[in-house]
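As a warm-up, study this chain.
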Amino acid sequence: MSKIKIMDEILANKIAAGEVVERCASVVKELVENAIDAGSTEIKVDLIEAGTKQIKVVDNGVGMDHEDAILCFSRHATSKLKTEEDLFRIETLGFRGEALASIASVSKLSLKTSTGGVGTLVLIEGGKIKTVENTDSRRGTEICVSNLFYNTPARLKHMKSLYTELASITDYMNKLALSHPDIKFVLTNNNSTILNTDGSGILLKTISSIYGINVVKKMIEVSSSDNDYDITGFISKPEVQRSSRNHMITLVNGRVVKNATINRVINDSYHSFKPDNRYPIVVLCIEVDPTLVDVNVHPTKMDIKFSKMTELEELVSKMIKKALHNLTLIPHIEVEDDVEDIVINSNLSEENTIRKPVYVEQTLDLERTSVKEENVSYDIDVVKNESKEDNSSLVNSIEEIPYIPLDNNEPEEKKVTFVEDKTTRLPEMYPVGLVHGTYIICQNEEGMYMIDQHAAKERVNYEFFKEKLGNPVKESIPLLFPITIEYSNNEFMVLKKQFDFIRSLNFEIEEFGLNSIIIKSHPTWILEGYEEESIRTILDLIIELKDNFSIEKFNDKAAATMSCKRAIKANENITIEEMEHLISDLRHCDNPFNCPHGRPTTIYYSKYDLEKLFKRSGFDILK
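Now compare it with the structure written out below.
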């Protein structure tokens, strides 16, 4: 008797659901992407208990007729692929024809849809169609998914907490909104609005709805193209950082994708502009011929392969580096008005008092929604708080954010045209003193600057050492007393493998007995008095890199390590002349704004902000 049997369709759909429907966010993803493919301009997602009780997606797309409303729940039923050739030129977000069948097999689902005439209502439980009837309906589709995984207890048991599920849904909805700024997206949970975009088609405005006004003010517009790729989008200034890579968002032909290589290129482009464990906010929209990418890699359709990856890497890297090099990246310390209304003259009318607007800032890598009101930050648990009144600021504030939120009273940040003269990047400033033996105070007609003398000297040293390591001169200095260093046998083997490279740097190195080396001369740029320390640092780095050794990595790490040890220390008083010399050296650096580890070298208070601090701004009585 045959042991092999064909699975029935419901069982097959339940198994397929394990790949397609992993959690509540998977359901939202598939349903919203279908709504986008249907040509919708407005999409609303309503959740109950973070989607664990109910997920409702309503759109104004083309809708479905009676026959399609039934057929769409069959496995591998799709309107997006008709021939095998279509698979190599996918221009829609969905194409597998598995999502609706998989979702229906593990939930209780209702579909209400219409193409503009008589609508169709379909009720399904556990993959079995219970009811199909005509109904009145507007043009578009409404899908309601209830009790997800009610018939698969093992999957239900592994559901995450309500907040984790909601955070995952919010994260993906944010990315979808960024990928389609021309579509109005609304996301609610327990009647509280979490996301509300206006569908204006302006990407920067969508970024404002998600990240808030303060982030938008610090975004840089970028664009680049070649014969295969067109890239547009926004990148944050280095001072805007997050703890997760999740905010480096890549969109390919309107599809949200995850690509570790692109994320690495983006992060590497910010090298030395920020700490290595912090990440920028980046939204890149990549347009490419569909034949050059493969999205049919995984059922989630988020993994993607590029045919010309090297060209894309170079394009992204050059674009971001050029954008960063075109700006003065000194953090501007903005002084906010007091929390209470400022009323100094009692004769001022109420409309003349200064009031600070309320903004909403959503922080995606935290496990709560952060609402920033005036100078006080509150955390609102959007899952547990079911009161619409309590969350009124969340519901309404996003719509109040203006498009380009610049204060007309503040000087707009100056953009620096990219030229060969590096000194134009850091403004002329004149030192007037030193605070705590660490911070140099400078001034010019624009305002006041504070320079961290250790960070500034680190940057100067770093670029000096990196240039010397990358362009070794055939000159060396013999040591009066050669330096002998002993290593363990495994360290010695690693070091011996790189003897040729070490000699190319103009070190005279030889074996000296068992597992030992002797250095008889060193390059001229090694600082006097630091010879042995510098040599040990360089050799230790070669051993540390081991099999991952590359000249580029070595040069960067060696320069960063030596620059820190040779820099002016904190609490070390220097003269005005030494300050002027340090500032001059800093102005000639390729990146004068950050130390090699990403910390800022300089911060800036505008004259306007200083006047606000001392209540001199806007009131004649104070002048």
